[in-house]
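for the recovery benchmark. tokens below, seq after
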């Protein structure tokens, strides 16, 4: 369930950030900012649902998922296929995030 929350949070964050990118860099209407702000609020809410006792650990593990999701966005929505180096880097990040999430920790 944690990975699903992270993926949903990543998609919300990327969509929110992309709305600012579209407004600023692609010269889209400022109206793009309204759904972007909603997406960024949704991102923060979803990340807060992750079952961990520390925010920093939740954010650190999320970083690996965010990287992989960003490459998915690159491919599916921007039409640029990630290369083998992108995929290798994302795999390393997912492994790192998994170590953070799944490490046995004492009480």
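predicted aa per position
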């Amino acid at each position: 369930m944690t990975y699903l929350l992270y993926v949903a949070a990543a998609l919300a964050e990327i969509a929110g950030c992309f709305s600012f990118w579209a407004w600023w860099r692609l010269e889209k209407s400022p109206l793009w900012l309204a759904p972007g702000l909603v997406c960024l609020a949704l991102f923060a809410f979803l990340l807060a649902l992750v079952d961990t006792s520390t925010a920093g650990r939740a954010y650190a593990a999320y970083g690996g998922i965010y990287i992989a999701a960003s490459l998915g966005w690159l491919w599916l929505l921007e039409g640029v296929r990630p290369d083998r180096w992108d995929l290798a880097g994302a795999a390393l990040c997912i492994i790192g995030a998994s170590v953070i999430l799944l490490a046995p920790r004492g009480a």
